[in-house]
Amino acid sequence: MKKLINDPQDVMRDSLAGFAAAHSDILKVCFDPVYVVRADAPVTGKVGIISGGGSGHEPLHGGFVGQGMLDAACPGQVFTSPSPDQMEAATAAVDGGAGVLHIVKNYTGDVLNFEMAAELCEARGIQVESVIINDDVAVQDSLYTAGRRGLGVTVMAEKICGAAAARGYDLGRVAELGRRVNESGRSMGMALTSCTVPAAGRPTFELGEDEIEMGVGIHGEPGRKRMPHRPTSELIAHMTDAILADQPIRDGGRVIAMVSGMGATPLLELYLVYRELEQILRGRKIAVSRRLVGNYITSLDMAGCAITLVQADDELLSLWDDPVLTPALRWGI
Amino acid sequence: MKKLINDPQDVMRDSLAGFAAAHSDILKVCFDPVYVVRADAPVTGKVGIISGGGSGHEPLHGGFVGQGMLDAACPGQVFTSPSPDQMEAATAAVDGGAGVLHIVKNYTGDVLNFEMAAELCEARGIQVESVIINDDVAVQDSLYTAGRRGLGVTVMAEKICGAAAARGYDLGRVAELGRRVNESGRSMGMALTSCTVPAAGRPTFELGEDEIEMGVGIHGEPGRKRMPHRPTSELIAHMTDAILADQPIRDGGRVIAMVSGMGATPLLELYLVYRELEQILRGRKIAVSRRLVGNYITSLDMAGCAITLVQADDELLSLWDDPVLTPALRWGI
Question: Is residue B253 part of a domain?
Answer without folding.
Answer: yes
